[in-house]
Amino acid sequence: MYALVDGNNFYVSCERVFRPSLNGRPVVVLSNNDGCAIARSNEAKALGITMGEPWFKIRHLEEQAGLVALSANFTLYGDMSDRMMSLAAGLGPTQEIYSIDESFISLHGVRGDLMERAWKIRARIHQWIGIPCGIGLAPTKTLAKLANHIAKTAERKAGSYPSELATVCNLASLSAAELAVILQATEVGTVWGIGRQIAQQLQAMGVHTVHDFVALPGDVVRGKWGVVLERTWRELRGEPCIELADNPPPKQQIACTRSFGQPVSDLPPLQEAISEFTTRAAEKLRRQKHRSGQVMVFARTSPFRDGPRFSKSVVVPLARPSADTTALTAAALKGLSSIYQPGYQLAKAGVMLLDLVPDSQVQCELLWDEEPTEQRDRTRLMEALDQVNGRFGKRTLLLGSSGMNQGADTWGMKQVRRTPRYTTDWTEVPVARA
């Protein structure tokens, strides 16, 4: 058995913990530089606000419907996530943290009433840190994900599913007939592992519900969509095919991108931004103990603004895979210079580290026609850089090419609606007055 613990509207719930006045009101959390909605309360969803909707299209709802918009406060959300995951871990012996607000828990070997145990863990999370959760239980991970969807939908939309499945849903406790009714009421596109395109293909074949999908012959699923979807099909039929990932595999790519607070057209501020993004990506690269063999750089104008359009990218290969911030930044700036053109109001840029290899592997090169250049090993320098910035805060030590003011007047983040970092900064701890 598996359980999926999922924080409801997680970013909004984190904000409501410290601002109870937001309860019952439509709230959205905006992306970096307040670009678009990345989290919505149920009340905001009822207004028709969709995920990723640009802020300028819903701004009028502030006056018309009392919509509250907040800048993303990822420092707060990350800390609240750590607290929630530590409490959720009490549900079973092993845990896979799937995302900032979701974790799978293995219940193998757990004795007693699993529903009672799930309700107690949910109550503990809500009481201790104030985050409401939905919990789904089932024999496989895909069914647990589906059970969580049913639990949250039944809680939010009365009548969509039986009320006893709201908040905590155990599909294993249902009879075959009851489960068939639930699967018939669930659209196939809601299944974990079935994307939009596959859902459209299934619907074109007359497969509209999860019940229709599991009724397909297995050889048809495998022949048309391959073994990956066949694995999803088997999991929905109760056959465990996906193991719990105690140690998720390292990322194959590391990206750092950002929309600018103000349009950027000159090269110097753009170089500062790219240098800063590369520094952030290099820190992540060293944390997962990898090196990068190629650096991709891109820049583009806004698709929502009038004027000439620009969108270019370039990949710069490195002679030798590296995790050295200075080497990666030099490659990124070289790539930027090759694609930069004046006269465009650039709205977004970013860096992606590609061709990642473990830092235990050393790939040397044969320079038949060139004299080998001396390459200093800066591993200890990078370790010192990370330790200083980890202890005293980001940008305590930084490359000069990143600029000193974090692009405050150009490429830096605005976040004018950000709430305090209540749990991680002593100067922003809330004060209670009696």
Automatic annotation (TrEMBL):
InterPro entries recorded: DNA/RNA_pol_sf, DNA_pol_Y-fam_little_finger, DNA_polymerase-Y, DUF4113, Rev_trsase/Diguanyl_cyclase, UmuC
Domain UmuC stretches: 2-195
Name used for this protein in its record: DNA polymerase V subunit UmuC
Gene3D superfamilies the record matches: 3.30.70.270, 3.40.1170.60, 5' to 3' exonuclease, C-terminal subdomain (1.10.150.20)
Any one Gene Ontology molecular-function term assigned to this protein's record: damaged DNA binding
Transmembrane segments: none
One Pfam family this sequence matches: IMS_C
Entry GO terms, CC: cytosol
The keyword Methyltransferase is assigned to this record: no
UniProt keyword list: DNA damage, DNA repair, SOS mutagenesis, SOS response
GO biological process terms on file: DNA repair; error-prone translesion synthesis; SOS response
Annotated family: Belongs to the DNA polymerase type-Y family.
